[in-house]
Amino acid sequence: MQVDTIDQRLGLFREMAEHAGVDLATLAADHPQEVRAAAQRCLGCREAPQCHHRFEARDATSPVPDFCRNAGQFALWAGLRREHNR
Questions:
Q1: pLDDT for 26-47, tens place per residue?
Q2: What gap in Å lies between CA 8 and CA 15, rounded to an integer?
Q3: Global confidence as pTM
């Protein structure tokens, strides 16, 4: 599948965030600029087809892949969430 629309790319962004354990809706309420910047990184990514194929394979146990431009950001957000829930 060719990933070439904004909606498709933002869908991948939401899926990857969810996969990383990040609640974008809650996060965006407190940190809208950070979420917007991460979405922009996703929109500009050249690995969208690879990202899409990863979700087609339904590999729910693997970590966010290294090619993801937001891998570090997702890890940071997921870590903050874990600390907040303690």
A1: 999 999 999 999 999 999 988 8
A2: 11
A3: 0.82
